[in-house]
Inverse folding.
């Protein structure tokens, strides 16, 4: 396992709610995100595992690395992206639900 420099003990990233474990979404920096993505270049498994989010300009970027496969999506709406990270909506719903301010559809697909 390659060290990324920001792994937390598993017990700090999870919370048991109604008999199920929920993983806390951790805000990370661009440098930490790069280390996360680089960690799986050789093995195909990324570390640390968990749910991560970061901001880049007017976009939020989410990293779903619960199982080490690291799925990445982006949105202008942090709340919508957090729903995707929590598994409350799927990727199709994330793209369908992307709206700009004032309720206008985002024509860029972000």
């Amino acid at each position: 396992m390659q060290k990324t420099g920001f792994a937390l003990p598993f017990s700090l990233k999870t919370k048991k709610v109604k008999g199920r474990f929920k993983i806390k979404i951790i805000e990370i920096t661009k440098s930490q995100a790069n280390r996360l993505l680089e960690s799986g270049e050789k093995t195909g498994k990324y570390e640390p595992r968990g749910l991560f989010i970061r901001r880049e300009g007017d976009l939020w970027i989410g990293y779903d690395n619960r199982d080490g496969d690291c799925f990445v999506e982006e949105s202008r709406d942090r709340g919508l992206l957090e729903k995707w990270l929590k598994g409350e909506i799927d990727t199709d719903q994330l793209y369908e639900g992307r709206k700009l301010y004032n309720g206008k559809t985002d024509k860029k697909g972000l």
